[in-house]
Specification:
- It is built from eleven helices and no strands.
- By secondary structure, the chain is an all-alpha fold.
- Helix 4 runs parallel beside helix 7 (about 170-185).
- The longest helix has 28 residues, at about 140-165.
Amino acid sequence: MTATSKLSEAQTMTNQRTMSMSKALAFFALSLVINSAGNVLTLVTSAKIHPSFLGAAFWTAAEANMGTALHWNLFWAFLIVGFLTSVLNAILIHHWEWKRVIGNMAFMVPFSALIQVFEDFFTGKYPQLYVGLPEAHGVGMVLLYVALNFLGVAFIAVAISIYQRVNLVLHPSDDLMQILRFRYFKGNATTAMWVSYVPPFLMAVFAAIVTGQIVNFGLGTLFAFLFQGSITGWADKVVFPHLKHQALDVGNTSVMSKEE
């Protein structure tokens, strides 16, 4: 069996929804919590080390730099970049689908709200529950925060694995990764993740040219670049292994098959 026919068979098996909506929503809600917690861990641990060298996840760092360069706050930076990424996704699958775009945008509402909740929690704004992460003093604290930063990246990767498989609505950048993974790279999560980093890389370069500096990039960003895709692929097999990709839609792959 050729690689192309294996891909076609895999898509035939996964292009229908085989779980109940209540179960899909439960998995989706869990993935949002994990993703939000992971993103905030990367941001807060980076901010607690002085001088900061950890950085945030790749897309988060790039969008923050883009917002600074164009004088957008984070809300508009994330929203506008998300919409433009949805446009790129439509180009890659060769058709525009409002349902998909609206789903991309809808993802960002609860996600943003949870980001704020976890940020408040980890920075100590709910002292009756938790006083927040302290500033890093000493080698031991720094090493602990590096580990927590990497754990945050792993949380993001696992969450991506879960909600990509559930496939109700996706963050535009994760939709991009899924399109690349199954339409262009025969299911390879690592390669798809690396290629999906091209847009944020270009955004970061643009921001650096405009502002003369680049922030929020560091060791954690490098870790995410090298390993987030691999962790997502691992999570597909290990975290809820019976959860298969539901209602997979990466466009008509007949052109790709002919080219191969």
